[in-house]
Amino acid sequence: MNANSELSFPAPAHWIDGKAVPFSGPVIEVVNPATEAVIATVPAGTAEDVDRAVAAATAAFPAWAATDPAERAAVVRRIAAGLQARSEEIAATISADMGAPISFARMGQAGLPVMAAEATVSVVADFPWTEEIANSLVVREPIGVVGAITPWNFPLQQVITKVVPALLAGNTVVLKPSEVAPLAARILAEVTAEAGVPAGVFNVVHGTGPVVGEAIAGHPGIDMVSFTGSTRAGKRVSELASATVKKVALELGGKSANIILRDADLKAAVTRGLSSAWINSGQVCGAYTRMLVPAELHDEVVELLREEAASYTVGDPTEESTLLGPLASETQRARVASYIERGVADGATVVVGGPGRPEGLETGAYVRPTVFADVDPDSVIAREEIFGPVLVVIPYSDDDHAVQIANSTDYGLNGAVFGETGHAMAIAKRMRAGQIDVNGPQMNLLAPFGGYKQSGNGREMGRFGLEEFLETKAIQR
């Protein structure tokens, strides 16, 4: 039986003041990108819906802000437990509305949010809510009502990395999930209620970015906006938020460089590098999308990539053996396909993949996972974020050249280095990005994550993520 064959979804509704709010106006269709079938609808929310959610969040704020941090932490632990209990449903839901293969959906789309919530809550007990500095008492207090706007590529994880620290800090939240993959937000809302989150503390308003997202960003009753999405949309959020001088945290695009040094284990570097570039069908802001290799090792690396790519099965995301599913929407498929065609037109060498659909997959938002070799670092496919399973291989002459290429884009979200540890660490320190992986380490959910340059500002995860949602007050005496 297919993993999502028995799924059913509730009638369209926002979640405001602790309950589902029936909606009778226009709706947005949620499309399964593998089958092109409409599987659900959500409200096409309005600015008035945002007003109602903000009013509920404002009314709930004083009591929640006054709640002891230990009690807020206990509530979040219950949220994590509730998500764990519904993990199979969450995985199947996200597989259905954005196309993640079910095996990855269980681990990355349903499992990772639970781990992230547990990691963040672990910092509360030792967090310096107050401290003495000379004759001042420094107090960290909740900001107020937080507007959270999240993307479709990790439709629960990206929500959790905003909502959990915001709640732990004592804020109330108005969330706009992506209209492309909105269904996990309802599950989270139900879990928060069961976990004891008071009415009004967590609210969900569905809708589009130009309507609901912009209403949140510019709303005078919202004290902070935390946004994850494209750099273009992030600029618009900042513009609207500036009218009320509210705090804005942005996690935006990326074009991460993976520098493979001459003293690297090539097989390990290529295996890990391709996995990062193609995971979640390449729809990852921090994917290692540029593989920088010594010029004399370029052809050897290309052959290793060709061999490695052969193991990646593309197909039905409900099948356990599928590693790469469709892209999240037909819009995204067309966008990625245009970049693949541009790479060919600009003279890059196709190693695997290329234009067109995978064989036998004429229905659905599928593209051919692609590797380009001998890519000009100044070309479009080497500089712009594609957000699909497209890896570019760029040769370099020496360390300085590699670092120069790595730092040459508008982005600076993350990157990677493979090589002898001391050598790799020295290169990592020269890279202008917010997080650098050296030799394929384990994910650290307590480490700060966020970008330099046009990859955004602010940090998520652990103590750093909690601090984003707090004001700092000094009381002199």
From TrEMBL:
Write down the InterPro entries for this protein, in alphabetical order: Ald_DH/histidinol_DH, Ald_DH_C, Ald_DH_CS_GLU, Ald_DH_N, Aldehyde_DH_dom
Recorded hits in Gene3D superfamilies, A to Z, give: Aldehyde Dehydrogenase, Chain A, domain 1, Aldehyde Dehydrogenase, Chain A, domain 2
Q: Which organism is it from?
A: Streptomyces prunicolor
Specify the Aldehyde dehydrogenase domain's residue ranges.
27-475
Name the Pfam families for this protein.
Answer: Aldedh
Looking up SUPFAM superfamilies in the UniProt record yields: ALDH-like
Identify the keywords attached in UniProt to this record, alphabetized. Oxidoreductase
Q: Kindly list any coiled-coil regions of this protein.
A: none
Protein name stated in the entry:
Aldehyde dehydrogenase family protein
**UniProt similarity note:** Belongs to the aldehyde dehydrogenase family.
Q: Which residues form the signal peptide?
A: none
Could you name the active-site residues?
E251
